[in-house]
Structures
1.
Amino acid sequence: MDKETRTYYIKLVKFLAEALGRNYEIVLHDVSEDGTNIAEIANNHISKRTINSPLSGFAIEMIKNKIYLERDYITHYKTSAKNSQIMSGSTFFIKKDEKLEGLLCINHDTSAFKKISDEILSLGNIYDNTYELTEQDNKEYIKFDLEEIVEDIIGTSIDNFKNKNLKPKEKQKMIADLYKKGIFNVKGVIPKVAELLNISEPSVYRHLQKIK
C-alpha cells in the first residue's frame, strides 16, 4: 500500500469509528511484500489488539485463498476474541489492478445486545440459543500474538512441538505446510518459525525460495 492510499484509509478508520460509535472496532491491515500488519486500529478496547497484533487465522486464510479475486468484500461473519465477546465482522478488500493492498475490517461488538435479549427472554421464561457460537459457526477467532497463530496451525503448543526433534526433511515439510496455510503472510513470523524448528532464519528463507 503506497503512502497516499495508507493515509486515506487511516483517515477513513478514524471517521468510521466516530460515526459508528464505540461498539465498532475498525482495523486497517496493510498488505506488503514484507507481510501484513495493522496500520491503524480504532476502538481497540473491544479486542484489546494493538498495532503490533497479527492477523486473525480467518484473514490469513482469505488472503491465501485469494478470496479478494472473487469478491470485493465479505460481510456479517461471526467472530470472537479471548474475552468471549460476540461480534459480527465485515471485511473490505483494498485492491489495485486485482492486487491486494490491504484489508479494512469492521467488528461490531454485539455482546451488549445478547445480554439485553437474554434478560428479556428470562423474564418470560423463554430460552433462545440463537446467539450461541459453535465451533462450526464461528468463522473468526482473534489471536493476540504470533505464537498463538502458529500454535493454532500446528495444533499444539510451541514448547511441545520443540520436543519432537524433527529431522531435516520433516522440518522442510513443516515449512511447506505452514506456507500452504498462509502463515508467512503475517509480518514478523519468520523468526518465530525459525525458533519453532530450531533452525536459522536464513534457512527458513532458503526453504521458502525452494517452495516458491
Note: The first strand starts at residue 24 and ends at 32.
2.
Amino acid sequence: MHVLRTVLRPGWIALGVVVIAFAVACFTLLAPWQLGKNSSTEHRNDLIRAAADTGPVPLAQLAPTGAFDASNEWREVTISGHYLPAAQTLVRLRNVDEQAAIEVVTPFAVAGTDRVIAVDRGFVRPAEGAAPPIPAVPTGEVTISGRIRAPEGTTPGRGAHSEENMLAVYTIDPAEIGRATGLRMDGFYVQLSPAQPGSLGEIPLPQLDSGPYLSYGLQWLAFGIMAPLGAAYFLYSEIRQRRRSAAANRARSSTVTAETSSESAPAVDTAGAASSARAERRRRVRSDLRAASTAPDPRQVGQVGSGPDAERTPDQVRDKLSQRYGG
C-alpha cells in the first residue's frame, strides 16, 4: 500500500513520464542517430581508402551514364572537354582548414558527348567588402582529373540566387545549378584534384577517423539505461524513508499510550480503595446500630452503668455512632 501511494503521487507520475520518454528517445532516436553517423563515416573511410589505392580511370569507364553510383564515390576519373565559365557558380559559407572559404563550381562539357559535369575547382578566401578575385579557367579543350562526389542537395528556400553579378548557392547540387543555368548536368559533381587545369585552392580529403559518433551513441544507450535505474533507486529510497517514518510514528504512539496507562492506574486503585473503605464504614455503622437497637435499657433492668454512656438511650447511642462514622 505504501508503494502504491508513493508511485501514484503526481510528482512521481510526472517524473515517470519524463524518464520513460527520455529512455525511448535515447533508444529510438539519439543513439541510432549517432551510431548511424558512425556507420556512415566508416563507410566513407572505406571508400576513400579503396579510391586512394586505385588510379584514375576515364569517366566513361566508371560512370558511363549521368546517374550517381554511391559505390564509386571518391574514385578518381579523367575527363576531356572544356569549361563553361559563363555558368560559373560561387558556393558560399564553406570552411577549409577552419577558415571561411568560397568554393567555385564551373560546369565542364565532356568532349564528344552532350554531358555536362559540375566541377568543383577548389576554394578562394573571401575578400572584405568586395567580390573575391577568381582566376579565369583555361580556354579550349583540356583534360582534367578529379574525384566523383555525391550531390549535397538543396534546402528549401536556400537555392541558387544572384550575387554580385554571379550565381551563388550554399550547397553543391548539380540539379539546382542546372536549373539556374539552363544546363542539363549529371547527377554528381567532380572535385578537382591538385595541380589540374583551372584548379584553385586544394580541398583536402577528409581525415580517416571515425570521429566521436560511436562513443556518443554508446553514451546515449547508457543514458537510456541509467535514467530508469536512477528513477527506480529514488523511488526505493522514498519508500524506505516512508516506512521508517511510519515505524517511528508507531513506536512513538505506543510509548505515549503506555505512559498514559501507567499514570492513570494509581488513580483507579485509590478510588477503589476509598470506595471499599466507605463500604466498610457503612457496614460497621449498620452493625453497631442494630446492636444498639437490640441492647436492653440498663435503667429498665435496674443496673447502673459505670461509663459515660450508661444513662444514654439507644437513640442517643445511635446518633453518636452516626456522627462518629458518618452514617
Note: The longest helix spans residues 213-294.
